[in-house]
Amino acid sequence: MPAIDRRSLLAGAAATSAFAATASFAQPDQVQAEPDLSGKAILITGCSSGFGRLMAEDYARKGAKVFATMRNLPRPEADELRQLAESEKLDLHLIEIDVTSDEQVAAGVAEAERINGGPLDVLINNAGVGYAGPIELQDMIATQLIFDTNVYGPHRMARAALPGMRKAKSGMIFNISSQLGRVIVPSSGHYSPTKFALEAMSEAMAYELAPHGVEVCVIQPGGYPTKVWVNRNQLASELKDRLSEEQAAAYPELVDRMGKEDGTRRTADPMDVPRAIAEIIAMPPGTRPLRRAVHPGAKPQEAINRVSAETQVAMLGNSPFGPWVKAVHNV
């Protein structure tokens, strides 16, 4: 196996627990210094609204060179970000990327690297979609769109950004999963299946990239009051309209709820996610967690995260892959 570099060297000195992947957020009453992201080149997908929009603004204000990407340019959301960048003199660049397009992904990442004069420091795979309804009723239109966006999209982006990161022997990839990437709620369509796939892909990449000095972190948000609910309801309503009478009659209560979910009653602060990622970016290499649950209240996925980490180390810790696995789990 190739030797592990900075990650293994720093992991032993880090004042972290054996499974730092499940470390909790600092409590609100603890004073935290604002992370300084100066000099970091950060590309974020899905910046038209929600976490992506908040990250783009916040990281640019923290000194990063931000590449805010979204699909279907030109659009008002992009114009707003450009105006914000001009008024605040932020190093923020708008690039069109639809993560379901091989061509736009390759061209968009290449453009960001050209502007940066080198590889990206951080890639944040934030773009995603959701559906609702029973698995049986997810037609191939819905199934292909959600897997193409939530799984193949991050894979496309990583494949485009990783050659430069590997050459630089540094870099970070954040994949925005979900609490539902570890636990399952019925009638969420293929949302959990795609996020479970993203979790597995992220962990495999984390091990494989350890000797290259590139780190992968999975962010697991709970429910937040973002535009995701509007988009999810629109997609679920369109799917509902495509159902036959027989299909709808098989799951009457679940079908009735499709397109009617109300995320406005959620009160958690969406800035929790940008803050968590900024905090992790600012951590020393070799101490960063593989996973971070981000939302107030109960975090049932953390128990699964702990068992998963323990199982991986027990299964592979003494194998030829052991150095990679132990480095990722900070053991």
Describe this structure in words.
The chain has helices spanning 6-11, 50-61, 76-88, 102-116, 140-168, 191-209, 228-242, 245-250, 252-257, 272-281, 301-316, 322-328, and strands at residues 41-44, 65-70, 92-96, 122-125, 172-176, 215-221, 291-294. The chain has a 7-stranded parallel beta sheet with strand order 3-2-1-4-5-6-7, sandwiched between helices. With 331 residues, the protein is α/β, with parallel strands linked by helices. Mean pLDDT is 90; it is low at 1-31. It is globular. It has a single domain (40-296), classed as NAD(P)-binding Rossmann-like Domain (Rossmann fold).
Give a brief rundown of this model:
With 331 residues, the chain is α/β, with parallel strands linked by helices. Helix content is 47%, strand content 11%. The chain contains twelve helices and seven strands.
Order of strands across the widest beta sheet? 3-2-1-4-5-6-7
Strand fraction band?
Answer: 5-15%
Unreliable spans are 1-31
* Assigned CATH superfamily: NAD(P)-binding Rossmann-like Domain
Number of strands: 7
Q: How many angstroms does the end-to-end distance come to?
A: 18 Å
Give the overall pLDDT as a whole number: 90
Query: Total helix count?
Result: 12
- Specify the oligomeric state: single chain
Tell me the series of helices and strands, N- to C-terminal. HEHEHEHEHEHEHHHHEHH
Number of separate structural domains: 1
- Alpha carbon gyration radius: 20 Å
Name given to the CATH architecture: 3-Layer(aba) Sandwich
Q: Describe the biggest sheet?
A: 7 strands, parallel
Broad structural category:
alpha/beta
> What is the fold-level CATH name, i.e. the topology?
Rossmann fold
Shape from CA axes? globular
The amount of helix comes to: 40-55%
CATH class: Alpha Beta
